[in-house]
Amino acid sequence: MRAITIDRYGGPEVAQLRSDVPVPAPAPGEVLVQVVCAGVNFMDVHTRQGKYRDSRTYPPRAPCTLGMEGAGVVLALGEGVTHLAVGDRVAWCIAWGSYAQYACVPAWQAARIPEAIGFDLAAAAMFQGCTAHYLVHDVARLAPGHSCLVHAGSGSIGQLLIQTAKRLGATVFATASTPHKRAVAAQRGADRTLAYEGFADAVRAATGGRGVDVVFDSLGKATLRESLRAARTRGLIVNYGNVSGSVSDLDPIELGEAGSLLLTRPRLADHMTDAATIQRRADAVFWAIAAGHLSVDLAEPCTLDDVQRVHARIEARAQVGKSVVWIDARDALARA
Ligand SMILES: NC(=O)c1ccc[n+]([C@@H]2O[C@H](COP(=O)([O-])OP(=O)(O)OC[C@H]3O[C@@H](n4cnc5c(N)ncnc54)[C@H](OP(=O)(O)O)[C@@H]3O)[C@@H](O)[C@H]2O)c1
What we know:
Elements: E1 3-6, E2 16-18, E3 30-39, H1 42-49, E4 64-65, E5 69-77, E6 89-93, E7 102-106, E8 111-112, H2 119-140, E9 147-150, H3 156-167, E10 171-175, H4 179-187, E11 192-194, H5 199-206, E12 212-217, H6 224-230, E13 231-239, H7 253-257, E14 262-264, H8 275-290, E15 302-303, H9 307-315, E16 324-326, H10 329-335
Parallel strand pairs: 9-10, 9-12, 10-11, 12-13, 13-14, 15-16
Antiparallel strand pairs: 1-2, 1-4, 3-5, 3-7, 3-16, 5-6, 6-8
Bound molecules: NADP nicotinamide-adenine-dinucleotide phosphate (NAP).
Keywords: NADP, Oxidoreductase
Pfam families: ADH_N, ADH_zinc_N
Organism: Comamonas antarctica
């Protein structure tokens, strides 16, 4: 089968398209899926770069097939799988091998997709939609009257965080690096958009000196210290990503000095630990999309031949919107 694999860590060039990869056979508890669309994520970039080589949460190591999110049709059931059937339309994330024509997915990680949702939207929304869902509902527990700051408000998760927080009645500040990206964040509903330069002072000024209840920080090194200053006394800092590098020298006393702040570094994997939770979160995301409450910013359709280019664009900070790979190029052409 055709698949994008890495045999070593490195830049986009190590992601190689091969046409001789064996079709995997489902182990007990897995389903074999014909992949229709695969989501392209920052996590794939991190995996390719080798950032997870020592991670206990994320097991894939080179050599491997890239891609940890996708949508497709169940072709065969491994031993013991009873809650899915051949022909089911499913989506998954944090299960590797999706940049390929066929993938074996642990059945408990595969969520059924409603008819109203196409494979491209399902592959685009599963990972980031479920992430925004748990961050807003379970970690930050936003409610009417709350305020939050969303960094990288035009990023895939940023856009979903803004929409979800607004729908729950929160006031939303959002940062982004360019006027175009700030316009995207405003379009998604941010009440106020900001450049990164001086964002903490701007947030404090706009909140009468108080600061926001919650900061969603996916940048890490470039913003985290200033994020502490943007939060209110006893506010919550949610450091859910480290696209600019991680902070390795934070003394807990800084959290005290900044106003008894709470700092957390949550992971989706710990909020998707069983089949029922995964289907519940996926349903919430898919139905919000179907009802028009949540928009997913789909980038132009691409194919397995385009993966290196999309990875390079993400790393160059030039990507706005989510890329999904149509595994069969004919499907991509039909969508273009
Ligand atoms: N903890 C979790 O549960 C969880 C789950 C899913 C993903 N994540 C992580 O969340 C982060 C964001 O994911 P995403 O899918 O929203 O990514 P994305 O769509 O690629 O957006 C990332 C944004 O980060 C900003 N950025 C700032 N510095 C950057 C840099 N040096 N390189 C590239 N982008 C930079 C860019 O916006 P500006 O140019 O406006 O700054 C960009 O739009 C990633 O680190 C991902 O691994 C965490």
